[in-house]
Amino acid sequence: MKMYEKILLVILLSGSLCMAGSLQPSASPAPTMKTLDEIEPRKAIPASSTPAAVFVISQSGSYYLQGDRQCTGTYGIRVDVNNVTIDLSGFSLIGSSADYGIYMNGKNNVEIRNGTVRNFAIGIYESGDGTGHRLINLRVLSNSTTGIQLLSIYNQVRDCTVNYNGVSALSGHGYVYAIRAGKGSTVTGNTVSNNGNGSTIPVYCIYTGVGSTISGNTLTDNGVSANTDYLFGILSGSDCMIKGNTVSNNGTSANITTNFTGLNAGTGSTVIGNTVNSNCVGATGPWKYGIFLNGYNLVDQNTSYLNGTNMSNPGNCVFGQNVAP
Q: In the chain, where are the structural domains located?
C-alpha cells in the first residue's frame, strides 16, 4: 500500500473514533404521558358533612366528588348542560330533605359512575327528552320512592346495585321504580333487591321502553309484603331482548290485587336463558305469573318454576326448549 493511502486510512479511523458517543449511560427517560387532568380537566364537587345547597353543573366537562356530600333542598346535583361526566370517586351523595339526588331535564350524554346515591326521594332522575345517558358501577340505595328513573332514550344502566328503594312507600307517591329506562336502553349486570318491600303503591323492579336489552340482571326479594295493585320483576316494552336474567323470591307474602309477573315480555320480544323461580310464595292475588308473554315472542332455554303460573302459552309465540312445568 502506498504511503499516502496508509495516511488517509489512519485519518479516517481517527475521525470515526472522535465521532463516537459517550460510553456513560444516558439519564432516565422523562415521562411523556399526560396526566388525567391534562387530557380531561376535571372540576371538583366539594365534600360536605353538613347539608349543602344544590351543586349546579352549567358547563360541559368532567366533574368529580371530593368526599361524601350531604345535600338539602330540591336537588343534590342538577345538570343543566349536555356532555357531562360525574365521577363520584367512591364517595356518597346523601340526601336529607332533598327530593332528587342527581337531576337532569332533557339533557344528552351524561355519564355518572363509581359511587353511591342514597336517602333521597328519587336517586337519579331524567325528566325529559334527553338521550344517551350512562350509569355505571353505582350503588343507589334507600331512596324513599325510586332508585333510577330515566325517561330519556338510548341509555345504559350497567353494573349497578339498586337496593332498598321504595320501602314502605305510601299511596300518593306515584310508583316505585328500582330501574326505569326509556326506549332503546341497555340494562345489564345489575343487582336489584329489597325494593318496594311493604309498599302500598305499584312496584316495578326493571321497566324499559321498546327496543331495549335487559340482560344478566339479578332481581331478588323485591315487593316482600307489599300491598298494592301491581308488582313486576322485569317489564319490557315491545321488541326487546331479555336474556340471562334471574328473577327469584319476589313478592313473598304480598297482597297484589291486580297483577304480579316475574318477567313480562312485550310483544315481539326475544326471551332467552332466564331463570324465574319462587316468586309470590305465600302471596294473595288473582294474577301470579312467572313469565308472561304478550305475543309474537321467541322463547327458548328459560327455566320457570314455583311461581303461581310458571309461563303463559299464547299460540302466536315460537318456543324452543324451556322448563316451565
A: 53-319
